[in-house]
Amino acid sequence: MNLSTFNTLDKESAAKELFACCGSTRFVDVMMTHFPFASEKQLVDLSTDIWYNQCSETDWRESFTHHPKIGDVKSLTEKFAGKEQAGVAVATQQTIQALAQANADYEAKNGFIFIVCATGKSADEMLQILLDRLKNEPEEELNIAMGEQQKISIIRFKKLLTEGDFSFLKVSQITTHVLDTAVGLPGKNISIRLQAKRNNVWQTIAQGITNGDGRIPDLLPQDRNLKPDTYKMVFDTGRYYQQQNLKTFYPEVEIQFTTFDETHYHVPLLVNPFGYSTYRGS
Question: The CATH number of the domain where 213 resides is what?
């Protein structure tokens, strides 16, 4: 389907399709006030503005209820072979059990299920992310989960409009790349937290782990631009070296940086067990 065809749908059908992308009643109601859409860019831009600026905690939580539980044993073993969660289907039983337990712990702590954009992530990677995020406060998790929902919504827009033009979408506004200079290889499976100051306290607003190339290309949703401010990335270098049975002088590396506009900011980390450096990349 292309956007022109979508725009010919009756309003009830169009709203149903949008609700399948993001299960928030208010989100869909406000989106439909702009129907039909002039372009794919308008569709995504509106979704970002409405989701972050016109929806509330109630709306975000409603959308979470329309996701299956990634940590549910039965769902993992029988149902989760879909495109968005394909990596889970090949998980070992041990990983599935660990995901199930961690998901139960997460829901008990935060009051909603674990939400993560699972595209391109293996079950082991999702388990690591889930265990990392269990350390967060519920307020932090609400902000992280709503960001993950927006990533999922954009993916679903693309699946809905398979003939659409989404070439305007770029990588996350904030990206990073870790290189282990001791061995000359990417630093993979490193947990990274992106933090902002809220009420003079650092809070995590996005989180992920580096891929095989040492990168996190989707730390933020593609259409999400942070306001100019000072932010911080926290790299869990302690666990990275512990997994290699190596000692390190730095259990964590924190990098503060300031954004000035809505352009792309790349914050690389060059690290070894006893030293590190950073710079503004491109």
Answer: 2.60.40.180
What is the residue whose two structure tokens read 């390190």?
A: 248
Residues 6 or more apart in contact with residue 131 via CB below 8 angstroms: 102
- Taking only the tens place, the pLDDT of each residue in 174-211 is 999 999 999 999 999 999 999 999 999 999 999 999 99
Q: Which of 233, 236, 190 is nearest to 213 (CA)?
A: 190
Type of residue numbered 48 = T
Task: Give a yes or no: residue 164 inside a domain.
Answer: no
- Determine the structural domain holding residue 250 and report its residue range: 174-278
**Torsions phi, psi for 53 (to 5 deg):** -115, -15
Q: How many domains does the chain have?
A: 2
Inter-CA distances, 149 with 47, 60, 87, 173, 243, Å: 11, 8, 18, 17, 31
Same domain, 130 and 180: no
Tokens of 276: 């590190």
CA distance 236 to 254: 9
Question: What is the structure's pLDDT at 119?
Answer: 83
Distance CA 81, CA 88 (A): 7
What confidence category does residue 78 fall into, taking pLDDT thresholds of 50, 70 and 90? low
pLDDT grade for 220, boundaries at 50, 70 and 90: very high
* Mean pLDDT for all residues in the chain: 92
Q: Does residue 51 lie within any of the structural domains?
A: no
Instruction: Tell whether 126 and 180 lie within a shared domain.
Output: no
Distance between CA atoms of 133 and 125, rounded to whole angstroms?
12
What is the pLDDT at residue 84? Answer: 47
